[in-house]
Amino acid sequence: MMMSERRAAVVAGHGRFAEGIISAVAQVMGEGHGLVAVTNADRTPEGIEQAIREALDRTGATVLFTDLPAGSCTFVGARLARSIPALHVVTGTSLPMLLSFVAGGTLEKVVEQAQAGIRVLGEGR
Amino acid sequence: MTLELLRIDDRLIHGQVVVGWGQPCEIGFFVLVDDAIAAAEWEQELYRMGTPPEMAIEFVTVDQAVQRLAQYQADPRVGMLLTGDIETMDRLTAASPGLRQVTIGGLHMKPGRVQRMRYVFLSPAEQALLQAMVARGLTVVAQDVPSAPVTSLDEVLRGDGTA
Protein backbone atom coordinates (compact mmCIF):
# COMPACT_ATOMS: atom_id res chain seq x y z
CA MET A 1 0.00 0.00 0.00
CA MET A 2 1.31 3.45 -0.86
CA MET A 3 1.34 6.19 1.75
CA SER A 4 -1.10 8.83 0.57
CA GLU A 5 0.96 11.81 1.65
CA ARG A 6 4.68 12.00 2.17
CA ARG A 7 5.57 14.39 4.96
CA ALA A 8 9.16 15.23 5.65
CA ALA A 9 10.73 15.54 9.07
CA VAL A 10 14.24 15.74 10.43
CA VAL A 11 15.25 13.37 13.24
CA ALA A 12 18.25 14.52 15.28
CA GLY A 13 20.01 13.06 18.27
CA HIS A 14 22.99 11.45 19.92
CA GLY A 15 25.28 8.97 18.20
CA ARG A 16 23.39 6.85 15.68
CA PHE A 17 20.02 7.37 17.34
CA ALA A 18 18.44 9.08 14.32
CA GLU A 19 19.89 6.69 11.76
CA GLY A 20 18.86 3.71 13.86
CA ILE A 21 15.31 4.75 14.64
CA ILE A 22 14.73 5.71 10.99
CA SER A 23 15.90 2.25 9.94
CA ALA A 24 13.27 0.85 12.33
CA VAL A 25 10.60 3.05 10.73
CA ALA A 26 11.66 1.79 7.30
CA GLN A 27 11.40 -1.80 8.50
CA VAL A 28 7.83 -1.25 9.67
CA MET A 29 6.53 1.23 7.09
CA GLY A 30 8.87 0.75 4.15
CA GLU A 31 11.03 3.31 2.39
CA GLY A 32 9.64 6.68 1.32
CA HIS A 33 8.98 7.69 4.91
CA GLY A 34 10.38 11.20 4.43
CA LEU A 35 12.60 11.13 7.52
CA VAL A 36 16.15 12.47 7.41
CA ALA A 37 18.77 11.75 10.09
CA VAL A 38 21.16 14.20 11.74
CA THR A 39 23.68 13.28 14.44
CA ASN A 40 25.28 15.60 16.97
CA ALA A 41 28.43 13.45 17.09
CA ASP A 42 31.68 15.45 16.82
CA ARG A 43 29.75 18.67 16.21
CA THR A 44 29.80 21.98 18.02
CA PRO A 45 26.39 23.59 18.65
CA GLU A 46 27.05 25.72 15.55
CA GLY A 47 27.82 22.58 13.55
CA ILE A 48 24.65 20.87 14.78
CA GLU A 49 22.60 23.94 13.82
CA GLN A 50 24.12 24.01 10.35
CA ALA A 51 23.43 20.31 9.80
CA ILE A 52 19.80 20.59 10.99
CA ARG A 53 19.21 23.76 9.00
CA GLU A 54 20.58 22.14 5.84
CA ALA A 55 18.37 19.08 6.37
CA LEU A 56 15.28 21.28 6.90
CA ASP A 57 16.07 23.34 3.80
CA ARG A 58 16.76 20.26 1.68
CA THR A 59 13.55 18.46 2.63
CA GLY A 60 11.17 21.35 3.29
CA ALA A 61 10.41 19.75 6.65
CA THR A 62 8.71 21.79 9.35
CA VAL A 63 9.03 19.19 12.10
CA LEU A 64 12.19 18.32 14.00
CA PHE A 65 12.17 15.23 16.22
CA THR A 66 14.91 15.06 18.87
CA ASP A 67 15.86 12.37 21.34
CA LEU A 68 16.46 14.05 24.69
CA PRO A 69 14.75 17.10 26.24
CA ALA A 70 18.10 18.30 27.63
CA GLY A 71 20.02 17.32 24.50
CA SER A 72 22.05 19.64 22.32
CA CYS A 73 19.84 18.94 19.29
CA THR A 74 16.78 20.03 21.27
CA PHE A 75 18.43 23.26 22.35
CA VAL A 76 19.51 23.94 18.77
CA GLY A 77 15.98 23.18 17.55
CA ALA A 78 14.43 25.55 20.08
CA ARG A 79 16.78 28.30 18.91
CA LEU A 80 15.95 27.58 15.27
CA ALA A 81 12.24 27.72 16.04
CA ARG A 82 12.69 31.36 17.04
CA SER A 83 13.77 32.25 13.50
CA ILE A 84 11.61 29.67 11.67
CA PRO A 85 8.06 30.21 13.03
CA ALA A 86 6.67 27.21 11.13
CA LEU A 87 9.11 24.82 12.78
CA HIS A 88 7.83 22.46 15.47
CA VAL A 89 10.31 20.68 17.73
CA VAL A 90 9.17 17.41 19.31
CA THR A 91 11.48 15.83 21.87
CA GLY A 92 11.52 12.46 23.61
CA THR A 93 11.19 10.77 20.23
CA SER A 94 10.19 7.11 20.16
CA LEU A 95 9.35 4.61 17.46
CA PRO A 96 5.57 4.81 18.06
CA MET A 97 5.86 8.57 17.69
CA LEU A 98 7.61 8.41 14.31
CA LEU A 99 5.32 5.68 13.03
CA SER A 100 2.31 7.82 13.89
CA PHE A 101 3.86 10.81 12.11
CA VAL A 102 4.73 8.85 8.97
CA ALA A 103 1.20 7.42 8.96
CA GLY A 104 -0.12 10.97 8.74
CA GLY A 105 -0.92 11.75 12.37
CA THR A 106 -1.13 15.32 13.61
CA LEU A 107 1.47 16.30 16.18
CA GLU A 108 -1.16 16.03 18.90
CA LYS A 109 -1.91 12.48 17.76
CA VAL A 110 1.79 11.69 17.50
CA VAL A 111 2.37 12.68 21.12
CA GLU A 112 -0.79 10.93 22.28
CA GLN A 113 0.22 7.67 20.62
CA ALA A 114 3.76 7.91 21.97
CA GLN A 115 2.44 8.31 25.50
CA ALA A 116 -0.03 5.47 25.03
CA GLY A 117 2.86 3.28 23.84
CA ILE A 118 4.66 3.42 27.18
CA ARG A 119 3.80 0.38 29.25
CA VAL A 120 5.42 -1.79 31.87
CA LEU A 121 4.66 -5.45 31.30
CA GLY A 122 5.40 -8.57 33.31
CA GLU A 123 4.82 -9.92 36.78
CA GLY A 124 7.73 -8.02 38.30
CA ARG A 125 6.33 -4.59 37.58
CA MET B 1 34.64 21.82 48.27
CA THR B 2 31.28 21.02 46.79
CA LEU B 3 32.09 22.14 43.28
CA GLU B 4 32.57 18.60 42.02
CA LEU B 5 33.69 19.61 38.57
CA LEU B 6 34.84 22.63 36.56
CA ARG B 7 33.98 21.56 33.03
CA ILE B 8 34.74 23.07 29.63
CA ASP B 9 32.08 21.94 27.17
CA ASP B 10 30.99 23.79 24.04
CA ARG B 11 27.48 22.32 24.44
CA LEU B 12 27.23 23.58 28.05
CA ILE B 13 24.06 21.97 29.50
CA HIS B 14 23.17 18.84 27.52
CA GLY B 15 22.55 15.12 27.86
CA GLN B 16 26.03 14.10 29.06
CA VAL B 17 25.97 16.81 31.69
CA VAL B 18 22.41 16.45 32.96
CA VAL B 19 22.05 12.68 32.67
CA GLY B 20 25.63 11.38 32.40
CA TRP B 21 27.03 13.39 35.33
CA GLY B 22 23.97 14.89 36.94
CA GLN B 23 22.23 11.72 38.02
CA PRO B 24 25.10 9.47 39.23
CA CYS B 25 26.91 12.37 40.95
CA GLU B 26 23.65 13.71 42.37
CA ILE B 27 24.41 17.19 41.08
CA GLY B 28 22.30 19.71 42.98
CA PHE B 29 23.27 22.85 41.11
CA PHE B 30 24.92 24.00 37.90
CA VAL B 31 26.75 27.29 37.50
CA LEU B 32 26.83 28.27 33.84
CA VAL B 33 29.54 30.90 33.33
CA ASP B 34 29.02 32.80 30.11
CA ASP B 35 28.93 36.58 29.74
CA ALA B 36 26.51 36.48 26.79
CA ILE B 37 24.06 33.96 28.28
CA ALA B 38 24.09 35.80 31.61
CA ALA B 39 22.51 38.70 29.72
CA ALA B 40 20.10 36.64 27.59
CA GLU B 41 16.87 35.79 29.41
CA TRP B 42 15.52 33.64 26.60
CA GLU B 43 18.69 31.51 26.44
CA GLN B 44 18.48 31.01 30.19
CA GLU B 45 14.89 29.86 29.90
CA LEU B 46 15.95 27.35 27.26
CA TYR B 47 18.58 25.79 29.54
CA ARG B 48 16.16 25.78 32.50
CA MET B 49 13.66 23.90 30.35
CA GLY B 50 16.21 21.15 29.76
CA THR B 51 17.34 20.81 33.36
CA PRO B 52 15.44 18.53 35.78
CA PRO B 53 13.67 20.43 38.57
CA GLU B 54 15.86 18.87 41.25
CA MET B 55 18.95 20.47 39.69
CA ALA B 56 19.22 24.24 40.15
CA ILE B 57 20.95 26.33 37.54
CA GLU B 58 22.53 29.75 37.88
CA PHE B 59 23.71 31.97 35.01
CA VAL B 60 26.62 34.27 35.78
CA THR B 61 29.32 36.33 34.12
CA VAL B 62 32.96 35.52 34.76
CA ASP B 63 33.19 38.41 37.22
CA GLN B 64 30.11 37.24 39.10
CA ALA B 65 31.44 33.67 39.23
CA VAL B 66 34.73 34.88 40.73
CA GLN B 67 32.82 36.85 43.38
CA ARG B 68 30.52 33.93 44.25
CA LEU B 69 33.04 31.11 44.18
CA ALA B 70 33.36 30.84 47.97
CA GLN B 71 29.57 30.68 48.19
CA TYR B 72 29.45 27.83 45.64
CA GLN B 73 32.16 25.94 47.48
CA ALA B 74 30.33 26.29 50.80
CA ASP B 75 27.07 25.06 49.30
CA PRO B 76 26.09 21.70 50.84
CA ARG B 77 24.80 20.49 47.48
CA VAL B 78 27.11 18.98 44.85
CA GLY B 79 27.77 21.53 42.10
CA MET B 80 29.18 21.65 38.61
CA LEU B 81 30.56 24.81 37.01
CA LEU B 82 30.52 25.00 33.21
CA THR B 83 32.10 27.20 30.58
CA GLY B 84 31.61 26.85 26.85
CA ASP B 85 35.19 27.59 25.90
CA ILE B 86 38.74 27.51 27.19
CA GLU B 87 39.15 31.29 27.16
CA THR B 88 36.29 31.76 29.67
CA MET B 89 37.69 29.06 31.97
CA ASP B 90 41.13 30.64 31.68
CA ARG B 91 39.74 34.03 32.78
CA LEU B 92 37.86 32.44 35.67
CA THR B 93 40.73 30.34 36.98
CA ALA B 94 43.27 33.17 36.57
CA ALA B 95 41.14 35.30 38.90
CA SER B 96 40.46 32.44 41.36
CA PRO B 97 43.75 31.04 42.68
CA GLY B 98 42.08 28.42 44.91
CA LEU B 99 40.85 26.25 42.05
CA ARG B 100 42.75 23.06 41.42
CA GLN B 101 41.40 21.06 38.48
CA VAL B 102 39.69 21.73 35.17
CA THR B 103 38.08 19.02 33.06
CA ILE B 104 37.62 19.19 29.31
CA GLY B 105 34.26 17.55 28.68
CA GLY B 106 33.73 18.31 25.01
CA LEU B 107 35.27 20.65 22.45
CA HIS B 108 34.23 19.68 18.97
CA MET B 109 35.38 20.30 15.40
CA LYS B 110 35.85 23.88 14.24
CA PRO B 111 38.08 25.36 11.55
CA GLY B 112 41.62 25.71 12.89
CA ARG B 113 41.24 22.94 15.44
CA VAL B 114 43.08 19.59 15.37
CA GLN B 115 41.48 16.43 16.72
CA ARG B 116 43.21 15.19 19.88
CA MET B 117 40.62 12.81 21.27
CA ARG B 118 37.22 11.56 20.14
CA TYR B 119 35.60 14.54 21.83
CA VAL B 120 38.49 17.02 22.02
CA PHE B 121 39.55 19.26 19.15
CA LEU B 122 42.01 22.09 19.91
CA SER B 123 43.55 25.03 18.06
CA PRO B 124 47.18 25.97 18.79
CA ALA B 125 45.97 29.04 20.71
CA GLU B 126 43.62 26.92 22.85
CA GLN B 127 46.42 24.44 23.50
CA ALA B 128 48.64 27.30 24.69
CA LEU B 129 45.91 28.54 27.06
CA LEU B 130 45.56 25.08 28.60
CA GLN B 131 49.32 24.84 29.04
CA ALA B 132 49.29 28.27 30.69
CA MET B 133 46.67 26.99 33.15
CA VAL B 134 48.94 24.07 34.03
CA ALA B 135 51.86 26.50 34.47
CA ARG B 136 49.70 28.36 37.00
CA GLY B 137 49.36 25.16 39.04
CA LEU B 138 46.06 23.79 37.75
CA THR B 139 45.56 20.17 36.78
CA VAL B 140 43.91 19.93 33.36
CA VAL B 141 42.34 16.63 32.32
CA ALA B 142 39.81 15.34 29.82
CA GLN B 143 36.83 13.14 30.70
CA ASP B 144 33.51 13.26 28.92
CA VAL B 145 31.43 10.97 31.17
CA PRO B 146 32.04 9.57 34.68
CA SER B 147 32.67 6.03 33.43
CA ALA B 148 35.39 7.18 30.99
CA PRO B 149 39.07 7.22 31.96
CA VAL B 150 40.60 10.52 33.08
CA THR B 151 43.17 11.65 30.51
CA SER B 152 45.93 14.07 31.45
CA LEU B 153 46.60 17.15 29.33
CA ASP B 154 49.94 15.69 28.22
CA GLU B 155 48.15 12.60 26.91
CA VAL B 156 45.47 14.76 25.27
CA LEU B 157 48.07 16.81 23.43
CA ARG B 158 49.88 13.67 22.26
CA GLY B 159 46.62 12.29 20.90
CA ASP B 160 45.62 12.05 17.27
CA GLY B 161 41.91 11.57 17.79
CA THR B 162 41.92 7.78 17.78
CA ALA B 163 41.51 7.45 21.58
Question: How would you briefly describe this protein structure?
Answer:
The complex is a heterodimer of chains A (125) and B (163). By secondary structure, chain A is of the alpha/beta class.
Explain what the structure shows.
Chain A has helices spanning 17-29, 45-59, 72-83, 95-102, 107-116, and strands at 9-13, 35-39, 63-66, 88-90. Chain A has 125 residues and is α/β, with parallel strands linked by helices. Chain A has a single domain, classed as Phosphotransferase system, mannose-type IIA component (Rossmann fold). Chain A has a 4-stranded parallel beta sheet with strand order 2-1-3-4, with helices on both faces. Chain A starts with 8 loop residues before the first strand and ends in a 9-residue tail after the last helix. Chain B has 6 helices and 9 strands. Chain B is of the alpha/beta class. Chain B has a 7-stranded mixed beta sheet with strand order 3-2-4-1-5-8-9, sandwiched between helices. Chain B has a two-stranded antiparallel sheet with strand order 6-7. In chain B, 39% of the residues are buried. The mean pLDDT of chain B is 94. The radius of gyration of chain B is 15 Å and the shape is globular. Chain B has a single domain, classed as Fructose Permease, CATH 3.40.35.10. Chain A binds chain B through residues 14, 40, 42-47, 68-72, 74-75, 78-79, 82, and chain B through 10-11, 13-15, 17-19, 42, 46-47, 49-52, 108-110, 118-119.
